[in-house]
Amino acid sequence: QVQLVESGGGLVQPGGSLRLSCAVIGSIFSIYDMGWYRQAPGKQRELVARITSGGSTNYADSVKGRFTISRDNAKNTVYLQMNNLKPEDTAVYYCNAKIISNSGTLRNDWGQGTQVTVSS
Q1: Residue 79 pLDDT > 90, yes or no?
Q2: In the chain, count of helices (H) and strands (E)?
Q3: In the predicted model, is pLDDT for residue 50 greater than 90?
Q4: How far apart are the first and last CA of the chain?
Q5: 1 pLDDT above the threshold of 90
Q6: 3-state DSSP call for residue 11?
Q7: What distance lies between CA 37 and its chain's CA centroid?
Q8: What CA–CA distance (Å, rounded) separates 28 from 62?
Q9: Up-side HSE of residue 103: CA atoms within 13 Å toward CB?
Q10: CA dihedral sign, ordered 24, 3, 98, 7
Q11: Which pLDDT tens digit goes with each residue over 15-43?
Q12: What is the C-alpha to C-alpha distance for residues 13 and 120, in angstroms, rounded to an integer?
């Protein structure tokens, strides 16, 4: 069994910062791509940032220069540092990981989501 456990969401004022964490727990052989997506009310889920096992990253244009994705392979954890937050960043943020389990199964797993609200 594999779980993605997220933490770090909350309420922050515009211009503030938050750091999201997502730990992959369970029977894992390897993790390659990891990423963060978000979904605002009435909108489709969208990519925020992704990072490969080798550390290559890509970002949505709307967050470039403000958000930084990183990962700790030893801890099977991915992070999203969010700076200069704007009200339009308000959404539920979901962690995603592409995993090969110990049984050899290729998986595409999601976290439960964590709410980020940017408001004064």
Answers
A1: yes
A2: 0, 11
A3: yes
A4: 40
A5: no
A6: strand
A7: 6
A8: 33
A9: 6
A10: negative
A11: 999 999 999 999 899 999 999 999 999 99
A12: 5
